[in-house]
Specification:
- With 134 residues, this protein is of the alpha/beta class.
- It is 43% helix and 14% strand.
- Strands 2-1-3 form a three-stranded parallel sheet, with helices on both faces.
- β1, α2 and β2 form a beta-alpha-beta unit.
- α3 packs across α4.
- The protein starts with a helix and ends in a 13-residue tail after the last helix.
Length: 134
């Protein structure tokens, strides 16, 4: 509903012809099975002496479960995701060696990069230099 509302508001704005990319923000705790992921997050919460709070949505589970969630969310109109590993290196490795190959196998994640800059990957033009002489 939020994605639809944003896209509708954008369509009626003066900037409707400019690119708009909507990304979900997720903090992820991943393991081979969901119980292990819950245990890992629980240990981190214990070390902090309180449950961790994030300004992003939190996902705890397996790379396959996360892949399913991302594909479901993508179907709602999201353009991409910002994934924050809950712990490094464990969750980062689970993203790169577990999640990414699953998404690539489904044809939903690139295997090469079309551009060497984030601006290029997002299809954004170079902004005008506000300091350049007119």
């Amino acid at each position: 509903a939020i994605v639809h509302e944003i896209r509708e508001l954008r369509a009626g704005s003066a900037r409707a012809d400019e690119p708009l990319h909507l990304f979900a923000d997720l903090e992820v705790y991943l393991a081979a099975d969901a119980a292990r992921a819950e245990d890992a997050k629980g240990r981190l919460d214990e070390l902090a002496a309180e449950p961790h709070r994030s300004d992003a949505a939190t996902f705890v589970g397996t790379p396959a479960e996360l892949a399913d969630l991302l594909l479901d969310w993508r179907a709602t109109g999201l353009d991409g995701f910002r994934l924050r590993p809950g712990s490094i290196p464990d969750d980062l490795e689970a993203i790169t060696r577990g999640l990414v190959p699953l998404l690539q196998g489904a044809g939903e994640f690139r295997t090469t990069y079309e551009s060497d800059t984030l601006r290029g990957l997002l299809g954004l033009g170079r902004p005008a230099n506000r300091y350049a002489a007119v």
